UniProtKB/TrEMBL annotation:
PANTHER family: BLR5614 PROTEIN-RELATED, CONSERVED INTEGRAL MEMBRANE PROTEIN. InterPro entries: Papain-like_cys_pep_sf, Transglutaminase-like. Transmembrane segments: none annotated. Residues 31-134 form the Transglutaminase-like domain. This is Transglutaminase-like domain-containing protein.
Length: 198
């Protein structure tokens, strides 16, 4: 699927805000550590992806009851669901001048659907946005950093009502933030997860 930026203004995908707070010391420290082992933007982006995927457990996998949503909090607590982990990866990418935005999938979940969060990035010289999924691997989930083709945590099954939303958002949609900010713990968050972007 070809991601489509919601705005042609590339600066929107480099901006810091209350969620993607890439000016925060925690984000800057993590970015500097990752940058020290990378010789070019591709290596840095891959290192940032692997760091968020592997070093920040998905709270539904780990059983962590804390709900984080701000990128700096995700990196400092090493905890978050897909949305929060996407915020952290976007912040690390933007911290090094790599345009990054947020993408979503609608996935089947029991008898309904649930919104899943991803990141899209635009590496210098690539000429195209590339979706990446820092959710975190586990048995049956093998997301990888790839530019030649997508290797996301979940492949969309249209026959199950699943779909890829093409938009690349510069900031999280309101329903994503409402679920994260309005939940006191993981159980409450699970009950508040958006079913989609409709």
């Amino acid at each position: 699927m070809e991601p489509v930026p919601e705005t042609a203004d590339l600066s929107a995908y480099l901006r810091a805000d209350d969620v993607i707070d890439h000016g925060h010391p925690q984000v800057r420290r993590t970015a500097a550590l990752l940058r020290s082992g990378a010789s070019n933007p591709y290596e840095y982006a891959k290192a940032a992806f692997v760091h968020v995927r592997d070093e920040v457990p998905h709270s539904f996998d780990s059983g962590d009851d804390r709900v984080s949503w701000r990128a700096s909090d995700v990196l400092s607590t090493r905890n978050g669901i897909c949305y929060a982990k996407s915020h952290a990866l976007a912040a690390l990418l933007r911290a090094e001048g790599i345009p990054a935005g947020l993408c979503y999938q609608r996935l089947a979940d029991g008898g309904g659907t649930v919104l899943h969060g991803l990141v899209a990035l635009l590496l210098p010289g690539s000429g195209r946005w590339s979706r990446q999924d820092p959710r975190g691997n586990k048995p049956g989930v093998d997301a990888r950093f790839r530019l030649d083709r997508e290797q996301l945590a979940f492949a969309v099954r249209p026959e199950c009502g699943e779909l890829d939303y093409p938009a690349v958002y510069a900031a999280p949609p309101a329903q994503v933030l409402a679920a994260l900010r309005g939940s006191a713990d993981r159980a409450e968050l699970a009950a508040r997860l958006p079913a989609g972007l409709e």
